[in-house]
Amino acid sequence: MLRHVVFDSLLHQKRQASLILAGYDLHLTDHALNNKAAFYRFRRKLNDTAFTAVIDTTGKILSFRREAYKQKLITHPPLPMASDSLFVLYSQANNEKSFTLECLDVQQRVRWKTPFASSDRPIYLVDFQSDAESIWIISADHEQEQTIWCLESRTGRVLSQARASDVDNKRFVESTLLLPDHSLVYAGRSLPAEARQRAISVKTGDLFLTRRLPNGRQLWSNTNANQSAPSAIVSPQDVEIRWEHLGIDPSGNYFLLGETFASTSAANNTAQIIAMHALVGYGYNTSSLTPVGFVQVKFDAKGTVLHTSVVPLPRTATFTELSYIPAQQLAYLAENRGFFRFRATSSDGNAVIMRNKKEFSVLHLDTQQMTPLYSGPYTETMDVWSGQGSGAVLYRAQPAKTAPPAPKWVSLP
What we know:
Number of helices: 5
Helix content: under 10%
Distance between the termini: 38 Å
Low-confidence stretches: 226-232, 267-277, 279-283
Structural class: mainly beta
Radius of gyration: 23 Å
């Protein structure tokens, strides 16, 4: 059964729609949102049948289909579309050398399809932003080369594309912000073009901030090597940074938040290696990551650094993988699995909502004080659903056969 629950702005349940789907072992593989409705696609694990449904915010089922669906059973990330009537879905080719964005209306009619292909190497979608006129995406290949694309929302027509890197620098976008004039501001790591692959995979490098128009024209781009190199922001030198959130404050200045982390990737001790080699014929490595603290960088409207601050926090849990993974790739895995502590921020970027094991807290970056955000009952499936300027929505997952719990709004102290 699919339950579609609608809440008002105070998180009071307004209505609920239930859709009974025949059969067992159903998996939600696609989920897309627009301003007024949600799209769902379920697959049966053991055959090629798919069920798709569109349900609006009044709980009305706008369309329902049962169809053959022969792609791999893969869960695709939801892409939020700033539209009242359109959805965008993402699908990856089986050989991973292309992906497609497909636009549907609420009756599930295809409005457009735009493929993105690479002739000889895998290509992936790594970021998506949209408004009523423009869709911005960032793709990356297996060597981490990134391309920034802008599409027309109504037609899917490619308006522009640009490489993130240039002749002097290899750049890796880690956070994006779509502005009301449809331009994109993006920030991330920058290393010299001659940097070796190991350094690219491990080091934070310098911080860059760029603004680009939908037609591809770059308004400005700053690489703040002197003000924002890791040596100028954090110490000791074995600490790296994962940039997590780019925002704009009420005065029109930008702020960028990141988490510092320490990472080690080394073989286990000799006794363990000998024991493992005797059992399975080979030794093994481990890679671990420990969050250290938070970093805030503030910029003016042209991307010049105004201020940086670092807040160290007690080191707690460690994220570990039983293989060698370079530091920045390990940080990407840890972030995708919800291991880093950042969850949301206030509208001015001075307060960070964070999850640390069983606690939800607010870290005030200007005073470096931490206050509890939530002290009620806790379960392992509880997390922050979304954050707004004055608080956050907490939710917890439930088994499929039980009624969905109401999310809880908590205000910033």
